[in-house]
């Protein structure tokens, strides 16, 4: 990945190898379907979706893809995430294992509901 200031998610994705681009695009599409109306932005130099406020981020790294759905989602989906490496607000999906797109969709829907319920 080039160290540059990305202006769009397309620019960000284009900086990765083709195989990573395919996974990133599928994650993007999954989030778009789960969060219709969410705005796509770059925040912290990562693809980000906003709905009133930050919804989720995602990013590619050498050996994994990280999904950042905020700490509340990590807690709410603790059981479903037990097979993945997590930290306070991050889930790591290693590239040598299948990406759980359905789980990404469910977590994103949870975050949409959470954001829309916040005053």
UniProtKB/TrEMBL annotation:
Name of this chain's protein: Uncharacterized conserved protein YdhG, YjbR/CyaY-like superfamily, DUF1801 family
Domain YdhG-like: 21-112
Gene3D superfamilies linked to this entry: 3.90.1150.200
